[in-house]
Amino acid sequence: MPFIDSKISFFVNNAVKEELKEELGKLITTLNKSETYLMVGIDDDYNLWLGGKKLEKGAYVSVSLYGNAPKEAYDKLTEQICDLFSKKLDIPGDAVYVTYHPVSDWGWNGRNF
């Protein structure tokens, strides 16, 4: 039950959003999760500041998942997300923040897991 929520500091067209969604669907396997229940959110043209300065090209990516994953998997996924955002959006790795939120209670379809 993962959710990847991305906030991007500039406009991203729908075709590129679709590409990001597809790639994130592949990358989630790094955490031993599948795309089957993956939810992706992409907020573009989002105001982000880092060190008190407005980012022209930056992103914040929040990864929530039911359960937990090993630290090594988080490290690898962070690298993969930074590479993806660099290649698809030309955002340098030092302007991408990635956070992880393991969740013990997750509801779906009228019940909790």
Structure notes:
The chain has 113 residues and is of the alpha/beta class. The protein is 29% helix and 31% strand. The chain contains two helices and eight strands; from the N terminus they run βαββββαβββ. A four-stranded mixed β-sheet has the order 2-1-5-6, covered by helices on one side. β5 (59-66), α2 and β6 form a beta-alpha-beta unit.
Task: Summarize the topology.
Layout (H helix, E strand, L loop, with lengths): L2 E6 L5 H14 L11 E5 L5 E2 L2 E2 L4 E8 L4 H19 L6 E8 L3 E2 L2 E2 L1
Parallel strand pairs: 1-2, 5-6
Antiparallel strand pairs: 1-5, 3-4, 7-8
Helix pairs in contact: 1-2
Question: What keyword list fits this structure?
Answer:
four-stranded mixed β-sheet; 113 residues; two-stranded antiparallel sheet; alpha/beta; 2 helices
